């Protein structure tokens, strides 16, 4: 398999992830991504979005089992031999983990950490790899001389830039960014988001960005998928989903953020009572119904599949179906 920058990069079909004890962290997710496209995945902590990211590159911890298909360049990552998976993680797709300080090796210089995969996967000489590492640091807005620094000598924003440089080390066709602005102040968050957006455009790579923040995703991504209890419950153009969500859960996430031009939203952000369900003891029917402000009796006994909610949009809600039926006159 050769992942090329062009055409369809990723197809995820009926992906399911279960942990030891039967906890269902991801339940039948379908996704697709083309070159140059930016897909956001949003949801509360515990909804399964980080598990989904790990499953895409077969990075799940021991005891977790993934089924379904994750097609990168037409080849199933879940069916690959381990040697092939290792190569694909760098040369085909790479990941920017949340919490850069915990992802970098504290006792190695950052230049050496960026250079290592270049030597392993690009067959570069050590000197050539170190030169490439300095170029990557400059690409993400850091002086090449910082290659000699250790992680603790950098700020949080600088370490996050290093993680992005590392993700670009082997010219991947797909980048997965899992909460790339976690624990950064607002100004640094904006810089990192603009950097990611710029690099994706210039390098013509696909991007999957994971966050709890719909406002950030709507500003950065082309399309947005909302996850709840391991499932995609809404998907569509990012700005449309943020501004006019169809699923009650998407509406609740969106309402939690102040709106530009609406001063009152600063003082009265709406929340959602309760917590996401335990993945080892999911409620019957629609898993969102215990928290849903518009749940019907049918919601407790019957789960809802994704259905058309408008041009290019889907949502898994009984009310979406009713609205579509009314519009069609059926």
UniProtKB/TrEMBL annotation:
Topology in membrane: Peripheral membrane protein
Localization (cell): Cell membrane
PROSITE patterns assigned: ABC_TRANSPORTER_1, ABC_TRANSPORTER_2
SMART domains from the UniProt entry: AAA
Record-level GO BP terms: peptide transport
Highest taxon above the source species: Bacteria
Key words, A-Z: ATP-binding, Cell membrane, Membrane, Nucleotide-binding, Transport
PANTHER family xrefs: DIPEPTIDE TRANSPORT ATP-BINDING PROTEIN DPPD, OLIGOPEPTIDE TRANSPORT ATP-BINDING PROTEIN APPD
Protein name as annotated: ABC transporter ATP-binding protein
Organism of derivation: Streptomyces albus (strain ATCC 21838 / DSM 41398 / FERM P-419 / JCM 4703 / NBRC 107858)
Lineage: Bacteria, Bacillati, Actinomycetota, Actinomycetes, Kitasatosporales
């Amino acid at each position: 398999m050769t992942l090329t920058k062009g055409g369809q990069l990723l197809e995820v079909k009926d992906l399911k992830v279960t942990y030891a004890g039967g906890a269902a962290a991801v339940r039948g997710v379908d996704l697709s991504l083309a070159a140059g496209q930016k897909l956001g995945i949003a949801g509360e902590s515990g909804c399964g979005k980080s598990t989904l990211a790990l499953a895409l590159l077969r990075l799940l911890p021991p005891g977790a089992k993934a089924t379904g298909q994750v097609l990168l360049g037409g080849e199933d990552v879940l069916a690959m031999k381990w040697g092939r998976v290792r190569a694909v993680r760098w040369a085909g797709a790479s990941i920017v983990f949340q919490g850069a300080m915990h992802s970098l090796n504290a006792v190695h210089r950052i230049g050496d950490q960026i250079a290592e995969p270049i030597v392993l996967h690009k067959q570069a000489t050590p000197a050539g790899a170190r030169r490439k590492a300095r170029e990557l640091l400059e690409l993400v807005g850091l002086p090449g001389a910082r290659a000699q620094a250790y992680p603790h000598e950098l700020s949080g924003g600088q370490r996050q830039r290093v993680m992005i440089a590392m993700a670009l080390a082997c010219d991947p066709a797909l980048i997965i960014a899992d909460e790339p602005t976690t624990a950064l102040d607002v100004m640094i968050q904006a810089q990192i988001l603009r950097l990611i957006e710029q690099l994706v455009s210039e390098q013509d790579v696909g991007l999957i960005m994971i966050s709890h923040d719909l406002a950030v995703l709507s500003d950065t991504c082309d399309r947005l998928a909302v996850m709840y209890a391991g499932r995609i419950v809404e998907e569509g153009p990012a700005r449309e989903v943020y501004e006019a969500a169809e699923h009650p859960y998407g509406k609740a996430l969106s309402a939690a953020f102040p709106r530009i031009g609406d001063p009152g939203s600063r003082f009265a952000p709406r929340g959602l009572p309760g917590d996401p369900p335990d993945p080892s003891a999911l409620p019957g029917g629609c898993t969102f119904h215990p928290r849903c402000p518009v749940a019907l009796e049918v919601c407790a006994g019957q789960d809802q599949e994704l259905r058309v909610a408008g041009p290019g949009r889907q949502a898994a809600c009984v009310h979406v179906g009713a609205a579509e039926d009314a519009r069609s006159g059926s």
